[in-house]
Design goal:
37% of the residues lie in helices and 30% in strands. The chain is of the alpha+beta class and 123 residues long. It has a five-stranded antiparallel β-sheet. Helix 1 (16-30) packs antiparallel against helix 2. The termini are far apart. 15% of the residues are buried.
Length: 123
Amino acid sequence: MADVVLVINSGSRRDSEWLDELTDELQADLREIRGLVVRRATAAAGDGMKSGALEQVGQLVASGGAIGTMAWAIRDIVIKFLDRTRAGSVTVKNGDREVTIARPSDGQVDKIVDQLRDLLDDE
């Protein structure tokens, strides 16, 4: 199975240290899935750089023999991660295909709560 890349969108926050912390958190969360191997993404260093690879902040690479069967677990972990950290979204890429899982805005959540209240109101 090919590697799958997960890219964290920190939302309106552009602090690279915070994005680095988010990357560590999501990596730890995903490692809870049995059989899934998760590592930080790297890219080749440019000309004149001392190292052969550079770490890609906000990106993880996941692989596993049956990664397709782990879709539900990955989705659940990413949704909980987005809610907990307030990151904007996580995009999961497999080759040229991708799916973005976005955290709903506070306004969207408030609207859903209002709709539920109306639906469940006995009066």
